[in-house]
Amino acid sequence: MLCFPSLLADAEEYQPPVWKSYLYQLQQEAPRPRRTICPHTVENRPKYYGREFHGIISRDEVDELLAGVEGAYLIRESQRQPGCYTLALRFGHQTLNYRLFYDGKHFVGEKRFESIHDLVTDGLIMLYIETKASEYIARMTTNPIYEHIGYATQLREKVSRRLSRHRNESKKISNPSDNNTSVEKITSLVRRAALAPSDHRCNYEKAHSFKVHTFRGPYWCEYCANFMWGLIAQGVRCSDCGLNVHKQCSKFVPNDCQPDLKRVKKVYSCDLTTLVKAHNTPRPMVVDLCIREIEDRGLKSEGLYRVSGFTEHIEDVKMAFDRDGDKADISARTYQDINIIAGALKLYFRDLPIPVITYEAYPKLMEAAKVPDPDERLEAVHEALTLLPPAHFETLRYLMIHLKKVTQHEKENLMSPENLGIIFGPTLMRPPEESTLATLSDMRYQKQVVQTLIENEDVLF
């Protein structure tokens, strides 16, 4: 990764490089590993250790063998626990002893290494940097460059444009007339829906999906600008957008992930918000395309969403979306049976790693379903819906509008709000703790929730 001048620097005034090289210099100064070879053949030496294995020797003998050589190391078998092994390492003029393990790779902590040499190299780097720069490391997140480099600036501009576009497209709902005294009493929820349409739903904020990553070659943290030290697992990388940061810095990075389509490899089984942001759409395109196809030619189909399409054809639709995205052909000339498209839509919702109705909102909705008074139940459902992330809320809203249209053709398709609630309850939500007992006991309330959402979609959304 190349160094470059600060993006905020005055063109006529020289600025030092953004990337901070202090920790990189320390890594270069760290002691190098020096294997202490056993001078004789050791019987019963484990096949995954080399000549650095000395068998059963005492700590005093180890001190003598490693004395005066920084970075010197050997492996010994425990005197008290035969079959257990210790890595002895000379650092800071003292011998450090670590319990050593092997499960196909060598480790003393979380990191796994292909060789003892790599393990010791990484350990010496860590020990040296933490000894020399502990205060510096503790402070390195306090003055981040994240807000000033191109990555964060581009994100802010992209989000601002998106918010501006959504606000301009939002329709203003006028206040109902106060003079109409013949209107029936309406709940506070209905009043809120009429007077104060939600604006925050447009802001599709998303947390980064950080995973431990091994960087090949020198890398610098894109949050604090400091070198990512170590031999392996030096930091974390966002699997959705590719942002590289220290593990400790990842706690401070804003929830401004903008997923890259190149990194989002599939449509099904992909986090809903990730898919939405990657395609820059208000809802997952698979939902839009399937619903559009169903409404064009399937609203009067008897048993819509209840009758199953052929499983292999539904899998074909899934693979088409994963392969072709919004270019997938789900038209009548390819899939004449509309139940295949309906089945593919239900499968999409079932495959989501986090359900449309999230684990956070689930218990609130279960409580709401048990409220006997209809108006109070509606209020409770509305409050629970506010817990949904924007992409989940918008997807649920769009689906409920569609299902309401389905019920308007009940005479032909025989699908009432109650029937759809039975089908879509377990499709859109599941209890946080996966257990057969919890799932069975919640099914009636899941049905009640979806039925309420369909019947009151104009008020709740």
Automatic annotation (TrEMBL):
Domain SH2: 52-120
Keywords assigned by UniProt, alphabetized: GTPase activation, Membrane, Metal-binding, SH2 domain, Zinc, Zinc-finger
Annotated Phorbol-ester/DAG-type domain residues: 207-257
Main location per the UniProt record: membrane
Membrane topology: Peripheral membrane protein
GO aspect biological process, one term: regulation of small GTPase mediated signal transduction
Pfam families named among the record's database cross-references: C1_1, RhoGAP, SH2
Domain (Rho-GAP) ranges: 270-461
Functional description taken from the UniProt entry: GTPase-activating protein for p21-rac.
Species in which this protein is naturally found: Pleurodeles waltl
Subcellular localization: Membrane
GO cellular component, one term: membrane
GO MF term set: GTPase activator activity; zinc ion binding
Protein name, entry field: Chimaerin
Keyword match Ubl conjugation: no
